[in-house]
Design a protein that fits this description.
mainly beta; 4-stranded antiparallel beta sheet; 1 helix; 11 strands
């Protein structure tokens, strides 16, 4: 017999694009089996789109974390080493194909369809990052502005 304990966490990072606002949400589920006294935690990560005209919400990206279950449409299975960075996200941007996650020292893109992730920029202390839909603009500590594709 399993019991579930759920917890939701909504990030305070939002991204706006036209009439839409996007936010991140994490959902955790603690499963415990009475017979074995062991617990298992499963998590899911979401990016949710809000239409500001109607306030309708829609999930545009979902990722299983802390689990080896199949992802959307069974395209691939979760790998905890692949999904551990979801706990380190400082901010995000997105386009039609990818989500770009800003961490303290890197920018990583994740394909919205497959969930595959790649680091595209390594830089120390990414504190000021902007994205115009095509380029990343990074303000470095020596007040030098970098533009990267």
């Amino acid at each position: 017999m399993k019991f579930k304990k759920c917890m939701n966490q909504v990030s305070y990072y939002i991204y706006g694009n036209g009439p839409f606002v996007y936010y991140m949400k994490q959902e955790f589920e603690k499963l415990s089996e009475i017979a074995y006294h062991r617990g298992e935690e499963r998590g899911r990560f979401f990016i949710i789109e809000v239409d500001t005209a109607t306030f309708d919400e829609r999930i545009i990206f979902e990722k299983n974390i802390n689990s080896h279950e199949d992802h959307f449409l069974g395209l691939h299975s979760a790998d905890t080493s692949d999904s551990s960075f979801y706990y380190e996200i400082d901010s995000f941007f997105l386009d039609k194909k990818n989500v770009y996650f800003i961490e303290s020292d890197k920018i990583r893109w994740v394909n919205r369809l497959t969930g595959k992730a790649n680091v595209i920029i390594h830089a120390p202390l990414l504190t000021s990052v902007a994205f115009d839909g095509q380029y990343f603009f990074i303000l470095m500590k020596n007040t030098k502005l970098l533009s990267m594709i």
